[in-house]
Amino acid sequence: MATKNTNQPKTDSEAIATTNWKFLFKWLFILGGLAAGILNALVTNDVITVDDQYSYIVTALMTIGVIVGIFYFDSDDLINIGLRFMILGGAAGTIGGFYKIGAYLAPFFLGFSYYLGTIVLTLLVVYFVKKYILNK
What we know:
Number of helices: 4
Largest sheet: none
Helix content: over 70%
Order of helices and strands: HHHH
């Protein structure tokens, strides 16, 4: 006798799509921050020189920061993300005193802080648009 097929619960395709986009934006955030930190560390320590080629990378990182700020982070969580930005900037200012490695860690954290600053400013704009313009 054939076995009875049980009905498997179907997953919601919108939930799967949202999860996939969140996964993509999470990795864009992480890779963008790492790229900004590494680029700033290399430029600050004169490993590479600044020219027009790197201005495109900075523009791309700022664009990625705006996109991640709009689609990945929640604008209602602006205070916590702003605190992360301030703490990272403060840590970058104090970590430069470490012997030899501080010269690379401080610019790395400062570059990541620059990238996070773009995201915080985007969240600030989204927050005020939601609160004062869309909420009539």
